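step: validate -> pass
step: tokenize input -> pass
step: predict -> running
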Amino acid sequence: EFKKSYKCICDLFVEEDGYLQPQMGDLNWVEYLYLNKNKTNKAKIAYKNKEFYFSVRASLIDEQKQHYSIVFTDITKEELYKIELELISITDPLTNIKNRRYFQEKMHYEISRSKRYGYPVSFIMFDIDYFKVINDENGHDVGDEVLVVYTKFIASKLRESDIFCRIGGEEFMIIVPELDKDEAYKLAQKIREGVENYKKILPLTMSFGVVEYIDGESEQSLLKRVDKALYKAKDSGRNRVELG
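step: predict -> pass
step: emit ->
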């Protein structure tokens, strides 16, 4: 039944880093398995709208005929649990967007990509104006609700490729790949105006700092620049976007 639709089990392999592919460099996947039999090899398989995970090993049965025995051991439950733990470790539990740890990983990745391909990458840092007053006057439950509701609103304004993270109490960062600072500034203004007019839970405003990565600068220098731009917006009256 299987052979009516497929020539090989490898036809079902999902192309994803860290998992077996039909061709592993210059080697067929079976040859690769045998030559790396002391290594833990995994396959991700998509079949009938479901995904499964296996550890895979190979042993040579007949050298002349090149016959191999391939053993697939189902590790789906363990692998899904591992993926869930990893997701928890990079997700902010309140707002359900990514956290500071994820931001640091993606900042490094996007800067490396910018260096390699010459694409611009910009960073938008913002926080809620007078958030301490909101908490003090309305209670932390309302403050938490504000964070959740406005985070969802802002996320709806972003592209799929944008990376939205909560990096502190009421502080957020958006990485905008392939946008220069002027385009990122327009995006920040759009968000700022949207937030000001949204008025859900409580009417509030936000202040924004925007910078574009400068080739050769350190990540620490970039973070200092965007932080300085944000505080320039706050010092200039809040509910503003400032370029750094």
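step: describe -> The chain has a mean pLDDT of 94.
step: cleanup -> pass
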